[in-house]
Amino acid sequence: MKIKPECATCIVRQVVDAVKEISREEEVQFKLIRSTLSCIKEVYGPDAVPAWMGTEVHRYLKKISNNEDPYKRLKDRANKLAMGYLKNIEGELKKYNYKSPLERLKYKVKLAIAGNVIDFGPYSTDVDIDRKLKETLEGELKIDHSREFLQDLKHYDRILYLCDNAGEILFDKILIEELKKYCEVVASVKGGPILNDATLEDARYVGLDKVVKVITTGCDAIGVNLEEASQEFLKEFERADIIVAKGMGNFESLTEYSIDKPVYYIFKAKCPPVAQFVEVNVGDNILLRSPNP
Amino acid sequence: MKIKPECATCIVRQVVDAVKEISREEEVQFKLIRSTLSCIKEVYGPDAVPAWMGTEVHRYLKKISNNEDPYKRLKDRANKLAMGYLKNIEGELKKYNYKSPLERLKYKVKLAIAGNVIDFGPYSTDVDIDRKLKETLEGELKIDHSREFLQDLKHYDRILYLCDNAGEILFDKILIEELKKYCEVVASVKGGPILNDATLEDARYVGLDKVVKVITTGCDAIGVNLEEASQEFLKEFERADIIVAKGMGNFESLTEYSIDKPVYYIFKAKCPPVAQFVEVNVGDNILLRSPNP
């Protein structure tokens, strides 16, 4: 999908957030933001893809600030918070062992979305996490292709699961363990730090590598960029029967390609441009099969 | 006061909002936003004053879009909504005729802030307006120099009241009528369209010109810019014993000057940079005397 005019606001907000992680000195912050405005101007336009525009801008910011990983602190924090929170849902999780495969799958898809919804940022508290988790788990999937998903899981053999952010990757792990009951799963994370996207380090921290083979995209592009991806990634992308794409970045970028196999997009529509593209409301939770069943 | 690094987000958001008023065509919107990013880059920096940075950016946008008044529709709507809403508070207003001068003054100051709080935008409803008005009127003034204000009103003769936005100018009129019980009041509006700031047209629409002499700043600067102001404005600014400055734009800009008379700032601290500058929380309502009593 392409950006909308209002995406200008969001990318500038991201830059401000990142710059605040990079330096506490306002003078430095002003300089970095000012310089990045030129970069935004260059990549902003009706043909820009949100995830790729973000990639260019965050790469530029990493370069001019000599900071390879501005979100390091936030990612570490997200991982720790998610791990600490896990025990709170273990009881609930176990209950689902005795429910139907469809109910269990749907619950774990929602859990993976909840991981994407939770703000693991510096001001989040256990109460907030609890509330948001509950809202997502008890709410409906506005687009719900879970029946088709279960059918495809039974019919096919191999899944490539594209992870999204640090922290939430722990919740992805729980869904991936469920998917493994049906298929061989390979998970992929980013090949280098970008935004708060999960890298190998985060995958190892939550123990995802103990559960499935974890590869990287081979680059630090937000979402997927097949032109920049490593041979290893392209091979797994080719071999997989089903692609599971988590989060908005993967959705924004994969929808730019025509893919000859089922892709399951799992995300919360967090902003108007994405929500309008999928024809849902902002805040809706989505398990969308492409091609549409 | 000067801008903070995060003001980049807010000015871009304003540009996006304005551009959506200027054209419905996305291609035009992209072009205008993209071009305005250069202008923002030029005026953005640690020495920028929020209101004046906004002035440069909105002037640039008016120029490149050949649209002299992008907020015309929103201002007209705000005026109409405010006028339509007036009857709902007339009963409450009358009650205050029998209360003490201090209570009455404070109530009308809060009403003027409420006018600044209400979102008269396209999605506001009577219910929202009711709720926000009630919240402001029943809440406290976080900085409350109403006693000093009453004292100064009794002691001095002449007020220059700097208005802020269309719509809310009707609520300013109610406060101005109260101030007239003590002093001669001159009200000023902007000399040309900028943002949703009130101009002569708005003052006339709500009948402010029937109540006091209304002048303009002589220019389309957000807030006050004494270097650009007309002789008429400067004369009234000089003659006044008290300046009453409504809204954040007037606060942001007037604090750049040293003024040898009491200034009363009346506003809601709507964003972190302004709130931090005044040492209050975002959302707090302020009646601040400068110099501090």
Automatic annotation (TrEMBL), chains A, B:
Gene3D superfamilies: Uncharacterised protein PF01937, DUF89, domain 1, Uncharacterised protein PF01937, DUF89, domain 2, Uncharacterised protein PF01937, DUF89, domain 3. InterPro entries: ARMT-1-like_metal-bd_sf, ARMT1-like_metal-bd, PH1575-like. Residues 4-286 form the Damage-control phosphatase ARMT1-like metal-binding domain. Pfam families: ARMT1-like_dom. It comes from the Archaea. This is DUF89 domain-containing protein. The lineage of its organism: Archaea, Methanobacteriati, Methanobacteriota, Methanomada group, Methanococci.
